[in-house]
Amino acid sequence: DWNMPDYITEAVEKIRAQVGTDEVILGLSGGVDSSVAAALIHRAIGDQLTCVFVDHGLLRLDEGKMVMDMFAKNLGVKVIRIDAEDQFMGHLAGVADPEQKRKIIGREFVEVFNAESGKLVNAKWLAQGTIYPDVIESAGKGKKGQTIKSHHNVGGLPEHMKLSLLEPLRELFKDEVRKLGVALGLPHDMVYRHPFPGPGLGVRILGEVKKDFADLLRRADAIFIEELRNTPYEFIAGQAVDSDNLPKNWYEATSQAFAVFLPVKSVGVMGDGRTYEYVVALRAVQTQDFMTAHWAHLPHALLGKVSNRIINEVRGINRVVYDISGKPPATIEWE
Ligand code: XMP
């Protein structure tokens, strides 16, 4: 168990010794690992670090702005934001197969990142937020094989780039990475966020990905997350929570929660008119390791409020359902 201030001092010295006066680039995803790696490396070498943030248009509501505010404005980190939404949407048009979508998103991500980093002629190092479990995971193969995180973690470097890898979190477990992030001044809520898959909303819009669907899903998802955060936790039988460490709200009481867009229309009534619109499924799970998971027994009042808000506030959605499937046999994501 590390003493964080000592750990930071040691890690900073090690990074400085490793890179000297070289330039370093890092692909910022908005996730915890790459964020903590960026904050740590910035602490060590300041402006020798340039972060490249590829916005693939499949992020959560306001996430791009949040990342830029946190790094560029508050921490003074050099960040280049690349708005690649049109490019990603273009390549995803007409593609419905989940693994195909993952491949395309991963491939485009590397392409955009390389094109931009190629312009930073002096970069000699590629920094990554690889953590200890990634090192283990990449040695084996899970259900999704190497596609898990491969595009922003252990994917290997393109030949022509000739960059050396800088991976300052390689020996840390997730909880240590979070503590390190807080000690480096990252906001608690950011560091304790639920995990978000690299392909983002691309695997939460079933079948073909369309910008209109992503916009609807972002708003529905934001309402769900806001209500989970705002609803105080109460014990409900059937849940798996750590009784020594009681959560404050339902966001903390769940391991992962999100909305899924179903490209299916169903009939509804609103005012004196008939509607024929899309369906959103809510998914919330509790798990230790994400290999198995229970669906979260959320209070009915919370589910009711989320459903009312989504249907009233997100025109285009007229039905909300709750996913009550465990893993196994279902997976956490729908694709
Ligand atoms: P499943 O759906 O396999 O998800 O039960 C287990 C965990 O892995 C995440 N996940 C992914 N993360 N790229 C990622 O970076 C992916 O392609 C991917 N697929 C699933 C999922 O969000 C959950 O935390």
UniProtKB/TrEMBL annotation:
EC number: 6.3.5.2
Alphabetically ordered keywords of this record: ATP-binding, Glutamine amidotransferase, GMP biosynthesis, Ligase, Nucleotide-binding, Purine biosynthesis
Keyword Secreted annotated: no
Residue stretches spanning the membrane: none
UniProt-recorded name of the protein: GMP synthase [glutamine-hydrolyzing]
N-terminal signal peptide: none
Residue ranges annotated for the GMPS ATP-PPase domain, each copy included: 2-193
Binding positions for ATP per the UniProt entry: 29-35
Taxonomic superkingdom: Bacteria
Enzymatic reactions: XMP + L-glutamine + ATP + H2O = GMP + L-glutamate + AMP + diphosphate + 2 H(+)
Pathway: Purine metabolism; GMP biosynthesis; GMP from XMP (L-Gln route): step 1/1
